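Handout, section B. The chain below has 409 residues.
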Amino acid sequence: MHLDTGNTGFMLLCSSLVMLMTPGLAFFYGGLVGRKSVLSIMIQSFVSMGWTTVIWYFFGYSLCFSGDVGGIIGNLNMSFLKGVDLMAPSPINPSIPLIVFVAYQMMFAIITPALISGAFTHRVTFKAYMLFLTFWLIFVYFPFVHMVWGGGLFQQWGVLDFAGGIVVHNIAGMAALASVLYVGKRKVIERGPHSIPLVALGTGLLWFGWYGFNAGSEFRVDSVTAIAFLNTDIAASFAAVTWLLMDWMSSKKPKFLGLLTGAVAGLATITPAAGFVSPTTAVIIGVIAGIVCWYAVSLKNKLKLDDALDVWGVHGVGGLIGVILLGVFASTAFNPAGTDGLIAGNGKFFLIQCLAVIISSVWAFSFTYGMLWIIDKITPVKVDTAKQQSDLDEFLHGEQAYIGEDDIL
């Protein structure tokens, strides 16, 4: 193996950036909930950093990237990271050690199930969440990583997903929708975000980390890396401003929370297309993300679905439209290794993208709903009404995020 120190150093940096996104997500979600359930939502992100790593080491990486079983999943030949030594090259770019590839992909595995947790805040027991985290990785996340990036069915069809529109955002968002329908509404409706500054901190960390998420998915430093970096910022910025304007027109006030939510919607939507489209296309994708995701959240509110932190409207819908828009706007002028989309006359690619995202949406939704039903037979999934009305952090974890004056001896 000929080691390229520049590419390797860059990918280690990108792995660190993607790792930082999970604490960022914890702050983002933590600020959005009430004071008495901050810890119970934040631990669901942080525990994924520990437990998902354990699963990844045992067999997760192997199921994603070792061998192929029916185009759906890998095998167990690289369990316990067998064969991951100093000389093994990365399958994507042989000038990078396999060790780095394993670490980078692990960071994606950590954050994806954590995204879902925002949907069912204040309603799910920790034991049930741990079972959910485990089974969802095995039966939803790992198969789609293999199908899209590990040589499986979608990759064989020619599906493109630069950094996780299907693999991360779409399947997480659709799983969130299924979770909301299964666990039902909160019995105690919180008064809204307890700390918008925490949400802002989380958004900043997510936005910063997203450069590693998208630019790093080129697996080398070249002009496509740079275009993915620039497109990430452009889409996030245009989506943030678009959402701000939509909120302003709707409520007659420019909402800071709207600006922050719009940025995340733009980031999720550009993710599958970041390294395959032009900066001008990133503008279009950002604006569309801001408008469509805003309306998706409005629809959720009208239907009275208790997706507490808008995981479906932002990530599920954002990932879906990002994959479809890639099918429309993909351009080999900005990535010769990619393909041309519908606008350039490649209708087949557009149809393949649409089919892939339909399959991923249906599978993630249906499996998640069924899995929660099964977990409920093992241990109660829902926090009962009386406990929802109490201090949830104290009940579930014996801890409090904030100690008020009444609690000080």
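Note. Confidence is low (pLDDT under 50) at residues 405-409. Compare this with the example in section A.
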